[in-house]
Every structure is written in C-alpha cells, then in structure tokens.
Amino acid sequence: MSFFSYLLLICICVFQIGCASPSDLANAHLKSAYYKYIDKDYESSIEKVNRLLSKHKDEYSNEHTASLLNLKALNYYGLEKFIDAKGTLDYLIAEYPETKAAKDSVHLRNDLEKAINKAFGKT
Questions:
Q1: Is the terminal CB of the chain with fewer CB neighbours within 10 Å at N or C?
Q2: Is residue 39 part of a domain?
Q3: Could you list the residue range(s) of the whole structural domain that residue 85 is in?
C-alpha cells in the first residue's frame, strides 16, 4: 500500500469512530440492556444496567441515567421483586425528577406501593 492509501484508511477509521457521539453510545448501551429485557433475560439486563451505571455514568445525561434506572425497575418487576422495583423507582424519582423517565415512572411506583401495602396487610 502506498502512503496515500494508508492515510486514506486512517482518515476513514478516524471519521467512523469520531461520528459516534456520547449520546449515540449511551443509546446503543441502553438498547442492548433493553433487548435483554425484551427477551425476558431480566437478570442479564440488570447486570448490564449496573455495569453501565458504574462504568459509564459520567458519560450519560440525566435522561439516559434515568432511563437505565427505569429499565432496572422494570426488570425487577419482571422478576417479581416488587420492593426492589419500588426502591429503584423511588431513587429515580428523587434523583432525576425533571426527566421524562421519572415523570413516566410515578404511576408505576404508586401502583407498586399499593400492591406492596396490600400484600403486607397495610392500608
């Protein structure tokens, strides 16, 4: 290969890598965890969410972080770990109240609270 061929190859690689913004990467990671949820692989999805939040939290916007927490709560719900789901939603709503995910989660959180209270004989 000539010098110009190498230079062209490097430019193409840099261009391809440089085109992915942090937001694009965050969306890709979120989709990956969501696909595990869709496949009802709840444990793997929770592990993926936890890994993403611990390793890449600084790379995500509040909206992405809130969406990951919402997905984590949905996975707990799928596993019938209702107290864990409610706790995750409580944290999401308290820490990221201005996000769409928090606003969308309020009804699920309230329904979970009612179900938990009913299950434990509280009114």
A1: C
A2: yes
A3: 22-119
In the chain, the number of structural domains is 1
Taking each helix axis from N to C terminus, what angle separates 22-38 and 42-56, rounded to the nearest 10 degrees? Answer: 160
Average pLDDT on 7-33 reads 59
Query: Does residue 15 fall inside a structural domain?
Result: no
In residues, how long is the chain? 123
Give the chain's end-to-end CA distance (angstroms, integer): 76
Note whether residue 109 is domain-resident.
yes
Model confidence at 75: pLDDT above 70: yes
Mean per-residue pLDDT over the chain, rounded: 81
Q: Distance (Å, rounded) from C-alpha 37 to C-alpha 35?
A: 5
Whether residue 112 contacts residue 89, with contact meaning beta carbons closer than 8 Å, is answered with yes
Asked whether residue 22 carries a pLDDT value surpassing 50, the answer given is yes
Structure tokens at 42: 């709840």
Q: Of 30, 78, 87, which is closest to residue 53 (Cα–Cα)?
A: 30
